[in-house]
Amino acid sequence: MIWRGILLLAGAWLVPSGAIAAKPDFGGANPPVRVQMTEEGPVFATRQGRTLYSWARDDGTPGKSQCTGEHFTTNRIMAFVFPLPVAAKRRSCAEKWLPLIADKGARTGGAWSLITRDDGKRQWAYAGHPLYSSTKDQRPGDVNGNMERNADQAWRPALAPAGLPAGLKLVRRVEGLAIATADNRLLFRAKAGQGAALPLTPLAAPAIAQSRGDWTVTDSGTGQAQYAFRRDPLFLAPEGISDDAVLQSGEWQLALFKDATPVPPHIRTVMTLVGQAYAAPSGKLLYAFNCNYGPEDLACDDPGDAAVYYSTICGSGEECARQWQPLLADKGARPVGEWTVKDVAYPLFTDATDVTYPAGTPRVKAWAYKGRPVYTFADEEPGEMMGHGMWSLAGFGFYAVQVPGNHETGR
Amino acid sequence: MRSGDQPERRISRLRNSRLYGATLSLLIPVAPAFSASPETGGTIGLVLTSWRPALYETPGAKEECPSGLQVSEDIQNEKTPGAAERLAKFGFPLNRGPNGELAAYAPMKVEDPIPFRELQTRNGFGLNLDGTSDGHATAKSCTHEKFRTPEGVAADNQLARVLGCTVGWRASGFNVEFAAREFASSSVNRILVEISGVDDERNDPDVEIRIYKGLDGLVATGEGKFLPGTNQRIDNRFPRYMHQTRGKIADGVLTSDPIPLANLPLLWVANPGERKFRDLQLKLKLTDTGAEGIVSGYEDLRIWWNNYSRGMNSHGGIGNYSSAQLYRAAHRYADGYPDPKTGQCTAISAAYKVEAARAMIAHPALAQPSTVTASNDRTKP
């Protein structure tokens, strides 16, 4: 009975290619991209390794980019029009999100196409989505542009085919990138010599499936083909047993496409009401500022953006510096995974009506997560979570830095 | 299964069941937050389903708020000179502080032109936290006015003076209704009360009371009530929300001894946080399906304001109040735990009306209900 159900599922995986694609197919196109491995999985990136993104707002206007070079001075919210803070120094969307411009010899094909921007330049699109890189990304593998909290406006990394059998996908977990079914059931592999006490259901492969790359097709022992990843046969939790219960049994471990990269050794992980979050050596939670505002819901937490986004929450530059203290990096500290060391203005600003990082402001070497400096909240004691959600309805504020893949929704 | 079942009986039944073999391998070894209960007698499990500020309300608030209800932050801002200049300078209408601060995060930087509307009734709800009948100062309290409950008992609930004339916190107000819905819908708020050593559910002079954070959802009926008897697992990841005290049951009413210090998780208008109570007490009328009554204690003002002011509450216009006034009122009415240096009280007496449904509280070391399902039983075809 179980096999019948799984085979039905497997039937949906049948694709002409034999279900497994090892490399992205450019379909004859020549986009100036490469595939870059990141913590989110393989993504398309510029030739320099900058992750490429698509923007949800473009979804509603096929063939046209909503991210332009227009410099707005006001923001309309329902019937009200508000002046944008420090509008004269505000960068446009296209200055923060760099369109992947096509040169004269651009050749389309497959999922790769071109759109024409308002300024007449041609921009590459993948699967119909215009592509951009983020000024927040500094190194190959960075995916710093997708920390917005407004999912409707989300910038999404352009995920490249990961060579998974059809019907499978990657899911970010604390342990790394886990392989899961399209309906979010995690896949498992047995720990050495274990798995007998809690037998799981083999992940069935269709009869025409072929071995390719990391993926092989084995015999489950009953004559039924079964997928294996890096030689380990893969299994699913049967109906009625949760994935968490499987992991808690100690018999099985997640089938990981990629292990999570480590965090700096002194960064702690603590359990909070919003899931696991990172903490300073003192035990105090780490927070990052997240800001999106304006007609384009544009990131406003970059150096040189308006200071009022911060002063709204914490007051003068001096008071903000007292409340929100950057996690200082030791001399010689080196980037680890999604953690980097940045020169952070401290205080962040001196005039709430001007911009952050003004010339002459002292800088400190501090840790940043996904490109954003991390802070402790001075008025909080270890174990508390006072700084999380200190935000304005307008769309900016401080949030606890949550361990990826372990967010509790609170719902 | 009656919620009064003893743990040993539950274990015995589990061992005898065919599920046991499949379940055993899934049990999580957990270091218990408390030692195993030595109690004999039955156990009553409760899961809180509702949590609202205990406010005395009359139609139109005429008795308790004769000078009217609070005005919103928007109106206070409009009446404060320089509103247009502030908007032009900072770009946001409610950035009222000298650096464009929201009043919620810098309440002392903002002055309101329209005065706070004081609660002016002696009627109220709550428990007598300081043990006095007249509210005179004690070692752990500042001088304050007592309320008189419908039973004619002196009660402390200074928080009612802060919130009582705010439309958002009165019955059917935005804040109270929003918070009530999320209290039921979010597992952040899942507060479990386990009463053990119960020999007689109507009268028992000595019972043990334990409070936990739970993990599971509530099951609502079409009438907006919550089904009793659901499984509620203890969220053993949060020992800071586990508390223990003793109490008694008299005529079906449970009264707890004070818990000296109790943190409780609380998602409060879309804002995950917690509350820190001193001398937390429960007075719950037990029924066959649940309980209702009062949870009361001195709320630490630092934590209360932080939890209260963040997120959606940072814009007092939503609940029709002013953050600057509310903050000042809370500190003006604070009546608990004076700072030894300044004498200023650091906590405020607060009472909440709560409702609860009976529940099967599952201890992690006993079983994980989510894994104890029929489909786990591989002996079945």
What structural keywords apply?
heterodimer; A: 411 residues; mainly beta; 3 domains; 8-stranded antiparallel β-sheet; 5 helices; 8% helix; globular; B: 381 residues; alpha+beta; 8 helices; disordered C terminus; Lipoprotein (chain A); Lipoprotein_repeat (chain A); signal (chain A)
Give the topology, please.
The complex is a heterodimer of chains A (411) and B (381).
Chain A: H1 2-11, E1 33-38, E2 41-46, E3 52-55, E4 74-77, E5 80-83, H2 93-96, E6 97-99, E7 112-116, E8 122-126, E9 129-130, E10 132-134, E11 155-157, E12 168-173, E13 176-181, E14 187-190, E15 201-202, E16 215-219, E17 225-229, E18 232-233, E19 235-236, H3 243-248, E20 252-254, E21 256-259, E22 268-272, E23 275-279, E24 287-293, E25 298-299, H4 308-314, H5 317-323, E26 324-326, E27 339-345, E28 363-369, E29 372-377, E30 390-392, E31 396-400, E32 402-407
Antiparallel strand pairs in A: 1-2, 3-10, 3-11, 4-5, 6-10, 7-8, 8-9, 12-13, 13-21, 14-19, 14-20, 15-19, 16-17, 17-18, 22-23, 23-32, 24-25, 24-29, 24-31, 26-29, 27-28, 28-29, 30-31
Chain B: H1 7-16, H2 20-24, E1 42-53, H3 73-79, H4 83-90, E2 147-148, E3 154-155, H5 158-163, H6 174-185, E4 191-198, E5 204-213, E6 230-233, E7 243-250, E8 253-256, E9 259-267, E10 272-286, E11 290-300, H7 301-309, H8 323-333, E12 336-338, E13 345-362
